Amino acid sequence: MKKKLIFLAVITLLAGCVNPTDQGQQYKNGDLPDVLNQSYLVTSNVPRDFTEFKEQSQMVLDKSPSMANVYGPLYKQLDEWVLQSGDPAKLAKYGIQTAQLGGGDNKGNVLFTGYFSPVIELRHKKDELFKYPVYGKPECGQECPTRAQIYAGDLQGKGLELGYAKSLIDPFIMEVQGSGFVHFGDDDTMEYFAYAGKNFKAYVSIGKVLIDNGEVARKDMSLKAIKQWVSTHSDTEVRNLLEQNPSYVFFAPQKVDFVTGTAGIPLLPMASVAGDRKWLPMGTPLLAEVPLLNADGSWSGTHQLRLLIVLDTGGAVKDNHLDLYHGMGPRAGEQAGHYKYFGRVWKLGLANSATQLPWVTPPEKLK
To answer: What is the reported pLDDT for 256?
Structure first.
């Protein structure tokens, strides 16, 4: 299915630094050489919040019989653990097995980024202000036009226009997120634009382009910084920037109330993540020390222990990287745009079940 490719040129990984801690890094578990490392005891003294897990896991059970068959017993034991204890050191008493992710530095520091569902303003018909089309997927196979060709009008007159935006950057951000809500001001209706496919062209980060061109400092790069750059430059300059990314995402309108991910399950903010299916099949529950941020986007100095479920994927979400869903709208976008911090993560499994031995690479992807 989808998904969004995130502004990851902004991320500075741990290489070249000696035990940095400014982005929430910790060094408590020694060397963890693999993506998944068997662990026998989880100790964590950070604040805990498991409140959303019950609702998110129930959505999986209700919407996906196949995932319910695999993960139902594990979810049930996790519910019991939360009710009776919530102490990670006691997981084994409930038959729950753990595999710690090694992180990008093999010290357990897993990268957390954030994504959200934008709400953009569209009109059904083109006018002087709302003139930039958002397209459904054409029948073009591997020969789809590039972004520059689409902006130049290659898809005009084919009946693919889903609506018209006021600027190019709004639908572009929705492309990056992979989906989003749209409000049609001409009849005051709301729709969800789901990911419908892409044009099979290579993705280029416009954040990296701005950094390489000296327009934005690497340390300052964020979604907010990109928006600020756009607000101070002409439509032509913005178009030239966006055309540096030849990849283009198409959408399909849906009448739904929830945002769904790759697994087709409604996503709850701070309860679901996108992960790499090679290691984390859809439906996988994770125990994670999630980095908490201040209002200005800086790290607060602490983490929060949460139960998350992998229900989405992303082209840039590989190996020791999780993309945390933040919700819908501008505030969620502001929070997600700041999210580039590290936390410890454990993949969970249940002994004597389909999810046992979570440190073993899954033999195949779960559908």
So the answer is: 66
